[in-house]
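Protocol step 4 of 6: record predicted structures for both targets in the notebook before any analysis. Target 1:
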Amino acid sequence: MKRVINLCLLALVITTSNIANAAGRVSVEINNSSMVTVSLTEVVKGEKLFLKDYYGEILFNVTLEATPNYQKYFNLNNVPDGVYFVETESLYEVKVTPLLKNKKGVSLINTSAVTVFKPLVSVENDLMKVMFNNTEKAPVDLIIYDSEWRVLEEIIGYEKALLKKTYDFSKMPKGEYQLHFSLKDRTFIKKVSI
């Protein structure tokens, strides 16, 4: 058990250091009254860039290839006034930068950029290790389903900074399982085979 805890802590340290490095890699700037520039550095293959409206409708999305630098310009001149979100998604996190467009132009909503960490799930032998870094301490729900959509585990409203669990699947049938993590307006789904 002590080894499992040490491995989980090591994974958290590695993830946190990767995320700290990633935090400076995304830059969102306003060039003029309606032009937004998104710059990414050290892009890893599979990273995603989105522009969404307030209701979550995707206005732009791209899955990126590995490159030292990537830059995208968004002209918001022809979209209705409202709140928009620039989102970058990597293997471990989603960074959300809100923008406000009104008759004066486009502006960043100060201090409102948020980084949402994705849950980590690993399977070793018949043990499934789950770790979710909840920096905002917002209520998190975790539901684990089997292949027939039966609920095996349900954690509702977990508000601590770190959700860390180990599940023993040695007496469970081999197959596919899904973990649904819900945090505010986001749901992360992880699929595992045991």
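Target 2:
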Amino acid sequence: MDDKTIYALSTVFGKSGVAVIRISGKSAADVITKMTTISLADIKPRYACFTDLLDPVSRETVDKCLLLYFRAPSSFTGEDIVELQTHGSRAVIAAVLSALSALPGFRLAEPGEFSKRAFYNGKMDLTEAEGLADLIDAETAEQQKYALRQMSGVLKSLYDGWREELLKILAYLEAYIDFPDENIPEELISQLLNNVFKLKNAIKEHLSGDNIGERLREGFRVVIVGPPNAGKSSLLNTIVRRDAAIVSDIAGTTRDAVDVYLDVKGYPVLITDTAGIREVEEEIEKKGIEIAFDKMKDADLVLCLFDASKDSVQVFDNIKDIFKNKTLYIANKCDKLTFEQCSELQKQGCIPISARQKQGIEVLWDNIYNLIKSRFTSGSGLLITRQRYKEALRETLDALEDFNLDKEIELAAEDIRLATRGLGKITGHIEVDEILDKIFGSFCIGK
């Protein structure tokens, strides 16, 4: 990271009422002295000031704007920051960015560089930075809630707490390495082993979260499966209230999986329509059926749909044991059945609906929502939201599993050191330059 002052448009480029342009670095205050008529001594940090914005070379007025100055270290990046709130026309934005480029020592920011500087300056750790990225990308209420929770430092506190416990253990071991003639007291051995045992159990429990944190970011996967002509595509179209899939009376019309993203009462859901499951010889349809089974394996919830006017729930006997913990049985075309027949289907654990007549859809929707909600709640602040967290936690756990005091104390201390390093990879307490570019490179320009 160089020491140049960076700038970027923090709002979307295009026609808008207001555009926000951020400048951060040791020379950020030069914007005030060289692009306005205001004296730096007259600027009160964190207060908005209305001023003409001038081209630093021609001294022509570029725009009228609100200017805010955040003095280091009390800023987002920990550096001096100037924020310009200009009019949002393309011409104004282009003129301001061009004017900033003319200032010596200024350059356009790279993706995520503001947040990266905040990390380097100790304003946030990596989990908080990634929570910020998730908040920017949030599309549902639950994604927003959890991103805010992670930004507030719940994961940081958890991992830092574990790391502190490991550092205490390491300190004891290092002390006895420095004094090899001293024997470790039995009560201390018992205490160290007990602390490691508790940490292992805590990490194992944390890792057993069934990918819920990642699902919250990427979407819970719901797959509709069933025989041909059961009404899978009709159900998808009814749920999303548009023609997302082709509906036809010809069996085998759906050959490939059709994915649609939905917001289910705040939870992100990826719902998939699949090819009808049956024995076929035709290669394209066979491939579609193989894709359907692959989607079922990865799904969080499988909607097993059948035509109740001619089939029974027994059509799923071949898959019910494989996916028994994540299935919901749906009896379609119940508009063709009697009340007694529908009641009997309900007794069998099926949800009677008519996709075409839009009957029973709300009941189905509530069932889907309750199943998702039962697996996750934003009241939990301890979800693993990224694969790299899992990898680092498993690395930590492996090191702790290797730890014992029957081996040479130097080797036992190395196990604890490796475990500490694994946790440090998550929060950024160690040198992790190799992953920083990957993390912050996914941010938008200006953040």
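Step 5 preliminary note on target 2. Residues 244-255 have pLDDT under 50 and may be disordered. The chain has three domains: 5-109, 127-209+384-440, 218-375.
Proceed to step 6 after PI sign-off.
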